[in-house]
Amino acid sequence: MTSPRAALTLASPEATCSLATRLADRLRPGDVLLLSGGIGAGKTHFARCLIQALQDAPEDVPSPTFTLVQVYETRAGELWHADLYRLSDPDQCAELGLTDAFETAICLIEWPDRLEDLAPQGALSLGFAMDEGEDVRQLALDWTDPRWDEVLAGLTA
């Protein structure tokens, strides 16, 4: 396993939300964020903050654990928030329309390991991990697409 391109310590839920909010304004349709980490690691909190930052009138953002996918209209375009925890086969991801959404919408994917080889090569991977402090999270960011160098400039310093 290679080292992440960037690593951050998020000292509080507010710090996680701040990062999500700052990143939100830099996203565009076709951007895919793969959010991994254990239960309670902060994936949904990050996604909720990012989605609300793109809404003109922030609304409640439920976890899509049972609906699998929530779609939002935002000022940056359509945004898909998917929680793939309950999926057992990557073909189910295609049935949900995710592979098409990867090209036309901003996509936030929790439990991206369920995608297997359907995960877009140009996606930004965010790995959340709990730290010793109750509210502290470690975040590892990794990417191959040079677009993310520009998007993340100044956010990961």
From TrEMBL:
GO biological process: tRNA threonylcarbamoyladenosine modification
Annotated Pfam families: TsaE
UniProt KW keywords: ATP-binding, Cytoplasm, Magnesium, Metal-binding, Nucleotide-binding, tRNA processing
A GO molecular-function descriptor: metal ion binding
Cell inner membrane in keyword set: no
Domain of life: Bacteria
Nucleotide-binding recorded as keyword: yes
Subcellular location: Cytoplasm
Primary site of residence: cytoplasm
GO CC, alphabetical: cytoplasm
PANTHER family recorded: TRNA THREONYLCARBAMOYLADENOSINE BIOSYNTHESIS PROTEIN TSAE
Similarity field: Belongs to the TsaE family.
NCBIfam families: T6A_YjeE
Official protein name in the record: tRNA threonylcarbamoyladenosine biosynthesis protein TsaE
Lineage, broadest ranks: Bacteria, Pseudomonadati, Pseudomonadota, Alphaproteobacteria, Rhodobacterales
